[in-house]
Every structure is written in C-alpha cells, then in structure tokens.
Amino acid sequence: MQHGYIISGINSNCFGCEACAQICPQECIELKYSFNRFWYPVIDVEKCTNCNLCKKVCPYEKIENILSSKERPVAYAARTKNNGLLEQSTSGGIFTELSMPILEEGGVVFGAVLTDDFKVIHQSAVNIEQLAVMRGSKYVQSRIGQTYKEAKEYLGKSRPVLFTGTPCQIAGLKTFLGKNYNNLTTVDLICHGVLAPDVAIYHIKALEKEFDTKAVKVKFRDKQQGWKKSLSFCVEFENGQSYCRTGKEDRFYNMFLSNYDLRECCFECPFTKTARVGDITLGDFWGIEHTKPHLFDDKGHSLVLLNSIKGEEYFSKILPKLIYEKAQLEQSEQQKLKRPTEPDIWRDLYLRSVLKNGLEYTVESFSRPRPLWKKGIRYFQRKFRKII
Fold this sequence. Notes:
With 388 residues, this protein is an alpha+beta fold. 33% of the residues lie in helices and 19% in strands.
C-alpha cells in the first residue's frame, strides 16, 4: 500500500475488504471514495509508523494460503422445507437455516443489510429479527466497517460466530484474524461482481421522485414471477404504491448485468473457481430443471459447496430442515465457479461519461435498450475471448 494512495489513482487489485484499516494500530488508514465511486485505503502519513501491518493483512497475495479447499468440494442441491422462509429468501433459504443453530447457541451472525438511507453495510445479528433483514441479495459492495474487530471479540469470548460475505470479504476476515478459530464458521457467496453503491441509491431516489413518496421496502431480487425469473427489482412506497420490474426493464439491473460499473478487481477475481475461501459456499443452483428435474419447482434452489471438514460437520446440523440431494459441480450452470465476469466493451465510455456528465445522465443514457449493432459487437467479443 502506498502513502497518499488514491489521490492520483486506484489500485485495481484492492478488494475493498477494509482489513488494513481495521488492523492499523495507529488508526491512520481511512477508506475514501475514489473517482470510480468505490472505497480505497488512504494512509495519513503524519500518523503512520511504517509497521507494515496493512501489507501483512492484505489478502491479495495470500489467497492460496487461506483457501478452505484446494480440491473439489462436496456439492449439494438444497432448499429449506419452510415454504414461508423460502418465499422470503433469494434462493433456497439456506442462509437462514445455517444461521439458526448459531443463534440458538447464543452466538452471532454477520451479514449484509440495507440501511434506511439505502446503503449496504455489514453488521451483526443475535436474534431472528436482526437476522431477517440480512436475507436477500444486495448486489452492491457492502461496507465491512468494524465487523472484523467485532467478530474477533466474540470469538475471543468463546461465542460461536457465523460470518457471511463475498469471497474477498471472507479472505479479509481470515487474514485479519491471523489464526483459525474452532468457533468460527465462514460462508462465502458465489459472486457476479459488486456494483458501485451509488447506482442503487440513485435508482431508489429516482423512483421516490417518480412516485412522489418515500420508499419503505426495497428488494433487489424478487421471486413473485418465480425463481427462474427472479431478477426483479421491487420497491414498496409509503403511500401504498409499488414498483416491480424485471432485469430487462429495470435500470438498476441494466447497470448490474451490463458490467459497466463493477469494481475493477471483479474482472480479474481470483475467487472464481471451485477452490473456495469459506467453509461453506452458497449460490443459485442454475440449471437444476435440466439436471435434477425431480427437485425443480421454481421456488428456489441453492447450490451448497462444503469446502472443509468444519463446513461438512456444520451443514449436517441443518439437514433435517432441508430438501437436499448430492450433486456434481458440472450439474450447475454457475459460471462464476469457472471464470470472472467480463467487462462490457462500452465500460470505459460509460465511466468517462460518469466523470464528465454525472451519474444521472449516464445511467439514463446507458440503461436504454441496446441497438442491434451493439449487441452484435458484444456477441462477437465473447466468441473471440472464448477462442483466445
């Protein structure tokens, strides 16, 4: 990490896990908003004592050493038997089922929540009410804040901890802790890449203006039209009105799926492989209607990867609550276990437009349906990369 970093540019390798800021004994590292609208660490050179703890804790160079599995994990297709929970969950409801044993033992669960001002942050839950707001996909990068420190305190007091997050966030937690804890279970998510947070805030604020009322509930992914068509962005408003659009119709999903505005490191993500950093990995079991049609009911099914002995033992606790079946990794159409997301061919143009014209103008311009010639360029770009 360089002094004054971010003032003149960004480090494309930085995950934004915030481990460096939390480990610094002088508290001289601050995560600041960059010109690309993500947070990057900046060192206060007046306070820095050159202890180099920030370099030692950075997970980027240590990925192979902190993986929970270096070979093929045990895979399951699974969903909860609780239909009410299944309806509230993005996929198969496995996150909540995994969390319940921890809460019942007096432990703590860490996950991402959407705040009242539509920011996504990590926080802890010690009861079912606090856990409920962690359900569901968010798709924007969450701020970890001080949760690594908080988790370490609970672990030191022998309280069981379940920590969930993107693979890079779990990697940051592991390097921050510096050792294994028997009372810690980690869950990483199969990740497409994280979107710039202000895109979601802008979209919700624009909808509030359109509907002339305040948003009171936001679902980044809704299953009203079924799990296979669950890419729907839904908002409930204070005056009783609601908004719900599919991925093709909604500008937030246009931005997310077009890959214009993902964090730089997502395009070379080192975690898009079957060797995982968490004890357990969760994602959607895409393609289950073809490979395991007897399980498919369009209510949601999770792909669960058990990456360590601890993960296998923990998962066995919740099996009575699940409908499940062992699977082969090849039976799932999860592309993010094979390769990182590719940047869109128009991404540089989009980012330049944000700097020059602002986010509102750019999102409105780029979220419109693409002309056929642009779609054609994107198609041949993918084909060419496959050949290479």
